[in-house]
Amino acid sequence: MLTIEALDKVYKTGTFGTSDLHAVRKVSLDVQRGEVVSLIGESGSGKSTIGKMVLHLLDSTGGSITFDGRDVTRLGFRARRDYYRKVQGVFQDPFSSFNPIFKVDRTFETLRRSYFPRVSGAAWREKLEEALGAVSLEPGDTLGKFPHQLSGGQLQRLLIARALLLDIELLVADEIISMLDASTRIDVLNLLGELKGRGLGILFVTHDLSLGNYVSDRVVILYKGRVVERGATAAVFDDPLHPYTRDLLASVPHLDRTWEEVEAEESARSARLAGRCLYHEALAAQGRALGDEVAAGNTPADDVGLVEHAPGHFVGCFRKAADEECPAGV
Amino acid sequence: MTATQPAAAPGTGTEATEAPGAALAPSGSRKPGGDARETLYFALRNPKVVIGSVVVLAFLLLGLLGPLFLKNAPMDYAGPPMAPPSADFPFGTTTFGQDVFAQFVAGLRSTFLVGLLGGGVAAVIGMAIGFVAGYRGGLIDELLNMLTNVVLVIPGFVVLIIINAYLGVRSVPMQALYIGVFSWPWVARAVRAQTLSLRSRDFIDLARLSGVGVGTILRREVAPNMYSYLFMTFVLLFGGSILTAASLDFIGLGPTNAMSLGLMMNQAVQWSALHLGLWWWFIPPGLGITLIVGSLYIMNVGLDEVFNPKLREM
């Protein structure tokens, strides 16, 4: 449904925009209907930037974003309006997602004025209550209140309800759980699961590995704007290959295992993969199959591609930052 | 300006007592005009707003309706010279026997005209440029910023003197217009800065996701957060225009065919009213300007509480 190909985002920084900052480098991924894809990465890895580009809130520098076969990288005002009927987003900070001087109803009213100008007040009210019911909120408790009178969880669910008022097919959820406390967290997570069951595609942006593991069908691990590993959630979490993914997974406490066990497992895996780069090994193998020409090193140093290590499990070059050397010395 | 503070107290407000406004317009039966009605409700409950607007409106009414009931024209030599306030001449007379009260009422008219027109022109130009520059960014921002800075470094008062002297502008509206055209740059800069900080907030992105255009976002999402600030800007421009006009009047570049409060004070100084003890000649215009501008300030403080629900006592 949503396909991102070689997406780039470059910011001009420094005096007179003399230097470039690569926020996103050649990122490719796709989201299908009824599927949750997690974008996992630390701060500054470009995950929110990707979300914003998908929502057309930021312009991309290169590459393409296609939705149902249509390129949505450059949209005019009308086309964008139509696009937003299908694709909506929910942001990290529920408090800043509402205009602080207006009651929360106003957010829904904006949507109504924009997309449902002909719907009568009573019909709209019914639709609104249905959407609020879907996120298990009581209309009487939440409507007619100012944002500072509601809790973060309530506001976050109001925002999801807002997205549900439109008949959307894709939801970009940018860190929507991070601001919630544990008790409301599970409600929102379960809500996402339910939405997925209804055929909604969800691009779930998070820095939290366990959340990614819990909700998603597939994960994409980002580091410094580059996809270092992606694949089915189980494959990536059970057999992390890229050094960054391994570090990341090794730093998460487990409920069922002690630290020593995790350490031991990780050091065994590290020993197995030390000084290697599955990406360049695979390229070299491919090159041998294709002929010596490719093996002679046609891969440029800043290569940000991925190879399929196992079916559906892709991994990139084992160097971490883009300007580092590949550990295999290729 | 407090309206732009991010909400910082998650979940503490839920058990707050029901606001009187919410009781007035229960959430179950909200009408489209509910927000405006509620704003008016809080405005009328705020003593600062009420006192400020009563004073300003009283002066406005006096200026508008006063001349209809006066028997003397402002420039007529109507009575005895240098007469103190009496039943016939409530504010006394000038050195030439002109009715000070008649001058005061006529001066109020042109003062309001200069303030409204000059302040209005400056506010419209400054806000339009500030909003567009701050929201669009990029090249448009750079160009508009350049224009703003160019006008900002022009010594406006000197230019006004030259314009007034060379073009021989001698009517109150033209004077107001010129004042307006040269006093907007700081408004543009301030509005641009506020817009820049508001633009990065998530609710602006959410409005964009609702498929509404730039104009609507500026009008319905950005501007309301700055209402009290915009009003304060207008108050400052209003007062500034009046003072600039008074200064121009003072150096003899004021209107020749009308009376203004600035002109009254100028004439009072010119004819040594201070030394002659004719306090009734210069106190009323000075007090008039002070009261009008001061009331607008007080009104502004009150309106800040009205527009920002977090400042309301509840």
Distance between the termini of chain B: 20 Å
Poorly predicted sequence stretches spanning 5 or more consecutive residues of chain B: 1-33
What is the helix tally of chain B? Answer: 14
Protein structure class of chain A? alpha/beta
- Determine the oligomeric state from the structure: heterodimer
* Beta-strand percentage range of chain A: 15-25%
Q: How would you describe the shape of chain A?
A: globular
CATH topology heading of chain B: MetI-like fold
SSE arrangement of chain B, N to C: HHHHHHHHHHHHHH
What's the total number of strands of chain B? Answer: 0
The CATH superfamily label of chain B reads MetI-like
Mind telling me the CATH class of chain A?
Answer: Alpha Beta
How many beta-strand runs of chain A? 12
Greatest contact between two chains: A-B, 43 and 37 residues
- The radius of gyration computed from the alpha-carbon positions of chain B, rounded to a whole number of angstroms, is 23 Å
